[in-house]
Amino acid sequence: MADIFNEVDEELKQDNAKQLWDRYGRYIAGVAVLIVLATAAHVGWKEYVQNRQEAYSEQFMAALSMSGDKKHTEAAAVLAQLSRDASGGYATLARFREAVERTAAGEASAAVDIYDAVADDGGVDTLYQGLAVLNAVLLRIDDGDPVKLTASLEPLAAPESPWRHTAGELIAVLALRSGDVAKAREGYRKLADDLKAPQGARARATEMLRTFGK
Description:
By secondary structure, this protein is mainly alpha-helical. 79% of the residues lie in helices and 0% in strands.
């Protein structure tokens, strides 16, 4: 079967990949965004409970209130200050949330810079560094360099990585965007066959494999 796929005309493969990306790419990336942001919220809330500090708590809740009122730029400014004043988990949470607010304010480039800074910060737990890489890739997934983005994800796709399933799915998405149907198929097949992968990720991978088979 693999030989048959390899014999498909290259131009046809690229056309099919473009059609698949146009039809499913944003949906897949959107689902991944929800997964990553939900994880960030959970991680952040755990740190908040463990390190409750009244002054920082008030600042953070004030920023969330501004966000609820769609004052995302103002919320981001409060969170930026909080990330400078606080330390440990609170500072990290503030940085992640500031990036979310910058994105909501239409400042995706500023949000990417924040995620990149967290990813490169040796003082941040490696779990959060990986989360920052995922978020940065998601913001660049439509127009960033697929080769560079894939390279940044590969360490997170390692078998021992807690982010391996999300990273693997994003690598497949980037392969699809690049027109590399074979690589995308391989990535989705690996994810679909992984019994330890989240059910949602396996279901999406299975559906994409069905699409490839059409």
